[in-house]
Design goal:
Layout: H1 3-12, E1 15-23, H2 33-36, E2 40-43, H3 47-51, E3 66-69, E4 72-76, E5 79-86, E6 89-94, E7 108-111, E8 117-120, E9 127-129, E10 135-137, E11 147-148, E12 150-152, E13 157-162
Antiparallel strand pairs: 1-13, 2-3, 4-5, 5-6, 6-11, 7-8, 8-9, 9-10, 12-13
The structure holds FE2/S2 (inorganic) cluster.
């Protein structure tokens, strides 16, 4: 590790854990126009709730259990985290929407004015700033989705920064 890299690690004081099985190149790049047309087709585990808001993204008899999206959910450090790629940057938020628990990893990515990029939750269409997780609309809610810093290695390896290890790291096997 270079001196610069080790200094940066020390500065933000986070615990960076590798994301198993997912690299930068495995995530669809929202910035790439071609990839926008070939989004992940994912299984939706709560189709009844999803149906309320996602008819526009569905086009087959079976589509009530699938949805196209850019994000990808990963389990790490006792948490489920949504990853989104924009160019060479990866953004990470909690995968459960802070409004009512919707699947934020299935969010649409939208560009707002002033260069802000937001996530639009598929359940009730609330939007959150992808960078800091603050709710944007509806206005005045002051709800924040937890966000995590992500470091991208030279080979596309991803590491997510946490405040500490999750509880299971301290469980003892007897
Ligand atoms: S659960 Fe996400 S907007 Fe309601």
């Amino acid at each position: 590790m270079s001196n610069v890299a080790s200094r940066m690690e020390a500065e933000d004081n986070k615990l960076y854990l590798p994301v198993p099985g997912v690299k930068l190149q495995d995530l669809l790049d929202w910035q790439d126009p071609d990839q926008r047309n070939h989004r992940h087709l994912v299984h939706v585990s709560n189709p009844n709730h999803e149906l309320k808001v996602s008819f526009d993204s569905m086009n087959s008899a079976e589509s009530h259990v699938h949805r196209k999206c850019f994000g990808q959910a990963v389990d790490l450090n006792d948490d489920t985290i949504a990853l989104f790629r924009i160019g060479k940057e990866v953004y990470a938020t909690q995968a459960k929407c802070p409004h009512a628990g919707g699947p934020l990893h299935l969010a649409d990515i939208e560009e707002l004015v002033l260069g802000q990029v937001s996530l639009r939750c598929p359940w009730h269409k609330w939007t959150f700033n992808i960078d800091n997780g603050c709710s944007i609309s509806p206005p005045g809610r002051n709800v924040v989705a937890r966000t995590y810093p992500v470091k991208v290695g030279s080979g596309g390896e991803l590491r997510i920064g946490f405040e500490s290890f999750g509880p299971s790291a301290f469980e003892m096997d007897f």
